Amino acid sequence: MNKLKFAMPLAIAALFCACKKEKDDPKTNEEKLLGSWTYVSITADRPVIWNDGDTPTKDGLAHLPTCVKDDYIVLKANNVSEQNEGATKCDPDDDQVITSDWSLDGTKLIIDGEEYKLITVNGSTFKASTTGEYEGEEVTITLTLKRK
Questions:
Q1: Are strands 125-134 and 114-121 parallel, antiparallel or unpaired?
Q2: Which fold has domain 31-147?
Q3: Which of 14, 55, 103, 107 is 20 to 30 A (C-alpha) from 126?
Q4: Geometric angle at alpha carbon 132, from 84 and 55, rounded to 5°
Q5: Among positive and negative, which fits the CA dihedral 113, 32, 37, 140?
Q6: For the chain, which residues make up each domain, given as ranges?
Q7: Model confidence over 6-22: pLDDT tens digits?
Q8: How far apart are CA 30 and CA 129, in angstroms?
């Protein structure tokens, strides 16, 4: 009987340990990128003219037409991306959704053939940058998106 009294708490402890939930493996950056994303900011590392007639500025989002500001992108697990025109279209004849591909290799994010450097990604936001040329000099554009 004494052996049983001693064995019973050990058995119960073993049962609780065996049933203990294992922590989920941390998500990969690719898994964190899956979902729908809207633009929070688009900035340049120096002032540029975003649209004809504009004054040079670093803030690109402020200079986008309203019909572009509601656009969003969906990154799917099968490496398909959907660029959605949102509620307002700039041209009624434009497709509502344009499908393309996307991939992530380390910090190199490619969406529809455009290459970005992934800066940060978590469950609610991601930030990426790309470089281009403006007036003969390199300019870095940084995009920040939030989960829709």
A1: antiparallel
A2: Lipocalin (2.40.128)
A3: 55
A4: 80
A5: negative
A6: 31-147
A7: 444 444 444 444 454 55
A8: 16
